[in-house]
Amino acid sequence: MVIKPSLASGVTVLSDRYTASTVAYQGHGSGMDLELINSLNLAATGGLTPNLTILFDLMPEESLVRRSDSGVDAFESEPWTFHRKVRESYLAQAAANLNDWLVVDATQDKRALSEIIWAKVKPLL
Questions:
Q1: What are the DSSP calls for 79-121, one per residue?
Q2: Is 99 part of a structural domain of the chain?
Q3: Cβ-proximal residues to 125 (8 Å cutoff; 6+ apart), any chain
């Protein structure tokens, strides 16, 4: 594992995906057993949880406008019902852990997003 040794040495670790993604995509999106997913996440991470999870919230239909066709993977080619379930899962996880999540409206411009995120991240550093 790379994360734990890095944290132990005082390095700040950023990750673009972690256990919340597994819950959202495989659990709620694909309908896999959530107890199994949570057990596997716990085993894989040794119980390590993020200090902060940032969710760039965007309606699935809006994401179509932003994505390029060259990077379409198996999940991105799923129907809109799948993507709506994934978004709802992320929002539910955030609502259940308000202190550990920051949900930002991803339709805002980059400057506004960076200011909102920095205000939340700065005290953690």
A1: -HHHHHHHHHHHHHHHHHTGGGEEEEETTS-HHHHHHHHHHHH
A2: yes
A3: 12
Residue 6 lies in a domain: no
Amino acid at site 90: Y
Do the domain assignments include residue 4?
Answer: no
Tens digits of pLDDT across the chain (125 residues): 689 899 999 999 999 889 999 999 999 999 999 999 999 999 999 999 999 999 999 988 777 666 655 566 666 677 789 999 999 999 999 999 999 999 999 999 999 999 999 999 999 98
Residue 45 resides in a domain: yes
Residue type (1 letter), 91: L
Distance CA 38, CA 108 (A): 33
Give the whole-angstrom CA distance, residue 82 versus residue 19: 18
